[in-house]
Each structure stands twice: as C-alpha cells, then as structure tokens.
Design brief:
The structure is a single chain. The protein is α+β, with helices and mostly antiparallel strands. The chain has a domain at 5-62: YefM-like domain (YefM-like fold), CATH 3.40.1620.10. It is built from 4 helices and 3 strands. The protein has a 3-stranded mixed beta sheet with strand order 1-2-3. Strand 2 (29-33) and strand 3 (36-41) form a beta hairpin. The model has no long low-confidence stretch (mean pLDDT 90).
Length: 85
C-alpha cells in the first residue's frame, strides 16, 4: 500500500519513530511547517532508487533520443566572459 500522511512538525517530532515506520511501510510522509510542505520523509530504499546514478556522461549522450536526429546546435562564438566571484 502506498499512501502519504501529512504531519505537522510538532506531530512528527513527537512521533518520529511512527513517521519513520510509516515511511517504510506506507510510503512518503509529508511534514509541514506553518501549513506549507517543509520536507518529505521516504524510506532509504526509495531514496537510493531515486538518486542512483546510472552510467556516465558519455553513456547519457549516447543513449539520447536526439542522437541521429540531425539536430543542429549553433555554437556561440565569442571571447571569454567576465565572471564576478
């Protein structure tokens, strides 16, 4: 079952163990602050799945659906840009 539950910061603080348990069993748990979504608690497995990198940059471009589409990208020629740091 995948569902989300909305908790206030005060509720989540008082029931952190339950928030974690429900994130693992029921899905993402939303925590609000002053009526607005502040954070979403997800189980570690879901986090790893969503943030896992697959391949490198060359593989990313090689697998692009635009590869072979004859898309023309015009190079902007010019001098160096001034960058304030």
């Amino acid at each position: 079952m995948v569902s989300t539950h909305i908790w206030t910061v005060a509720e989540a603080k008082a029931k952190l163990s339950e928030v974690v348990d429900r994130a693992e069993s029921d899905g993402p748990q939303t925590i609000t602050r002053r009526g607005r979504t502040a954070v979403v608690v997800v189980c570690a497995e879901e986090w790893e799945r969503k943030t896992k990198r697959t391949g490198n940059l060359a593989e990313f471009f090689a697998a692009s659906p635009l590869r072979g589409s004859k898309l023309k990208v015009r190079r902007v020629k010019g001098g160096l840009r001034k960058v304030d740091l």
